[in-house]
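note to self — DONT lose this again. spent like an hour looking for the file last time. sequence + predicted structure for the chain T wanted, 88 res
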Amino acid sequence: MRKDYPAVKIGRLAVAESYAGSGIGTEIIRFIKYMFAFSNRTGCRFLTVDAYAEATEFYIKCGFNFVSEKDKGERTRSMYYDLINIID
């Protein structure tokens, strides 16, 4: 079993407060997923993010999972999305 996998880390993704709840953040994530699943030549299998604790629900709604429970209660949580979910 491998201990590491090719991944792309999403930096700090945010939208202006005036656009909060409009769905633009979800559309950005959807675009990133599609781009790396179908138009990508990097060979990456996962998208990762260090989400602020208050943003984890957004990433969960976008299909991300927690890497582990070790960072539970911390300011940020490591999360990932497996691009195989789009391809299959």
